[in-house]
Amino acid sequence: MTARAGDPLRVLFVNENVGGHATMHMAIRDELSGRADVVPRFLDVPRAGLVRRIVAVPLPILARYDLDLQPLRVVLAQSLLVRRRLARTAPFDVLHVYTQQAALLSASVVRDHPSVVSTDATGVQGAAILPYRPVGRGTAPRVKLQRHWEDRVYGAATHVIAKSEWTAASLRADYGVPDDRLSVIPFGVMVPRSLPDRREQIGLPEVTFVGATMARKGGWRVLRVFRRALRGRCVLNIVTHERVDPEPGVCVVGDLQPGDPRLDELLARTAVFAFPSEIDTFGNAVVEAMARAVPVVAARVNALSEIVDDGVTGLLVDPGDDDQLETAISSLLDDEERRRRMGVAARARVLERFDARVTTARLLEVLRRAYEQPR
Known about the structure:
By secondary structure, this protein is α/β, with parallel strands linked by helices.
């Protein structure tokens, strides 16, 4: 059963629902709510239960060399759950899956429906930047084995969307996705229409770091630089789910969830957003800070250099270089006018490229084309 001319398009969104994926889909939900031309439904992969946690257990000794296939076991267990949920799902006109890993075992469903598969990183790219797993002798064979399913999903999709040019380059070179089936859409965030007045702020400027995990996002590096050179010059806000012991000049917030209004309040006070993550594929937190006219200091890795215009909307530093990180943050703390200019430019860049209103409209165009394309 398919939609007739003039009927709203029924879209099923399948989402891994981890980290920034949840924030991204929250923005899509908000933007599509109340529209008459589309009926969106969302299949969010739930948190892992007992069985999936057992499947994900690393194997001692083998894990050290990445020989236990643990990352592949995790995504296959997740994909099996998605396949079972799809079998019980009401009819839809077009399928959107984010990311390809959620559909590894559902290539037949992807092939049999108008479908769009989107991703922020391919398996080839992701294998090198897993936060908990060093690259070892087993990494290349594991990636080759995962390619068996990945290639089927990309080949079955009506269209493929890369979240960045960095990702698109891998889809072309590593997976052979042709340009006529490939688009780049940097799925955005909800941008506030107005911002609070910062002119009345007093006291030390505030530097903010946001990351669910400290090591993965570079939070320990920010704290180390603060202790070494910035204490007394600024207040450091750390937003994380990990335990960080309080200390003079450091404010720790441990209970923020996506969409929490307290983040807006915090960013309204922030002078510099520090995000030296070395393994982030995109960086929604960076976009959210820029949307609120906050200049960003970030690592020059993956798609972050496509978001932060170095020297214009913020500063990029080499990964792992604490001296560069300290110098970049210090230079912005020392120059209020430069911070203001960069903040204005950052917000303008987000409104142009990363506003969910813009990116969701582009996504909907691709979904409509996929639905209308002869199969």
